[in-house]
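Task 17 of the worksheet. Students: predict the tertiary structure of the chain below and write it out as structure tokens. Keep your answer in the requested format; marks are given for formatting as well as content.
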Amino acid sequence: MFIVRVLAASFGLLVLNATVSAQTADTVVAALATEPSTLDPTKMVGGGDHYYIGQMFEQLVRFGPDLKPVNWLAESWSIEGTPDKPIIDVHIRKGVKFHNGDPLTAADFEFSYERLKDPKISPYSYTQANVGKFEIVDDHHFKLHFNAPDGNYIPNRLQLWAIPKKYFEKVGEEGFAKAPVGTGPWKFVSRSVKEELKLEAFDDYWNKDARPKVKNLVLKIIPEDLTRVAAFKSGAVDWIDAVPLSAVNEIKKMPGVETFSAISSNNLYIDFPADKPDSPFSKLKVRQAVAHAVDVDAIINNVLFGQGERYVEVGKGETGYDPNLQAYPYDVKKAKQLLAEAGYPNGFETPCYNLITPREPNVKEMGEAVFAYLGAVGIRCKVQGLEYSAWLNIGRRGRSGSPEMDGVAPWMWGHGLPGDPAEPWSGMLHSFVPGKGFGAFSHTSDPKVDAMIEELKATMKPEKRVELIEQIARYKHENVLGGVTTYRPIITLAWRENIEFRPWPFPGLWRAFQEVRFKP
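Model answer:
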């Protein structure tokens, strides 16, 4: 009892100290559930990295709060060239500065392109595979010459991040990782790993109409739901993300609190090694058994408290959404029958990897529910709980020394907002091709779907892209490739009513502090 009282008193003191700092007039203190794996845009591997990178770094195009594309660091851009060898012509804004005072030029985007296309540096090198030449016309004008059409380039915000070439070459990769410099509304001050990231508003930020109106932003990392909510209730923090699903209604009813709920850009699915011939999951009937074994609707209703939207391959509102594509019905008898027909009448054991870091609300509990459903039909899980970075390493392909994913893993890959599955499918559905970037997180190998994805990548006409996405979605669904799609989370953010906060969808996945201020 004495130990409990001491711990409670210590926590109370910490909350009191944090409350004092959170109440300063020039500082917003926010609590996030997920820690970044990197602060380098070229190396980021998960959506959680965007929460932090998106405060400091910017791209050529982004999506506004209304989910419509906005020219950002690109003042204008156009498609030129020929259908077989298109050219994207980009004029960047004049007067944009990096946090260290260096002017943004086309050379910085060329440097970003060179890093992004290098598979030794970037897990997304395949996004630059069709770019044959980066041409600098002048300091504020460049052209991307494509060897072949690339229909994925435009929906993904023209891909490139603004990275300061001179600064990077001066401090080196290690120095840049420790003190990153971008063009965004917030500049780096300090970072304590697993604790917090301190940022300061960038006085010379180029966008005078959409910028923060407070001096400091502190992003605290509090993965434990109860601790994060307690910090918010006590006043230790001003803003929290990933409001625990069981507490959403309570937080929404709290006096002096404002909330925002929206569909996350994340698309969750159940993945497995279908590309390994000796794996049970290489058999279609086993994959179909998984699809029938898990009651996703029950998980949404009971584990997620209704805070999720069921989707089948492509989410509602995304490019190529097909409302006629129906989920596999929950059917235990059918799942067991399929396992028996596949040669597993008594089921089988398999490793099951569960993400225990709250990358999305109740993701740990969701994984546990999936494993329980699988166990009920005979797929017996040997569960391993993994923190975010270790979980990513299980899924990522081609890394020396990293373990190969050999079992079931509830997984996720965001399609973005408003959403386009083409680029994610290149990474998680197309077969893994070492050195080419395709299949960076894929555990599927199917020549037909590979050919369709490559055709989609080479298609720039919007109407043809929709047709191809619908075709791929149907084939993917019928053959249960790239895992079993489940749901898109509904996230809730909360902040004190004396703060005015406008959520931006990307980068930052609604967590971008692009516009924040204390109300008069």
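Marker's comment: DSSP finds 14 helices and 21 strands in the chain. The longest strand covers residues 487-496.
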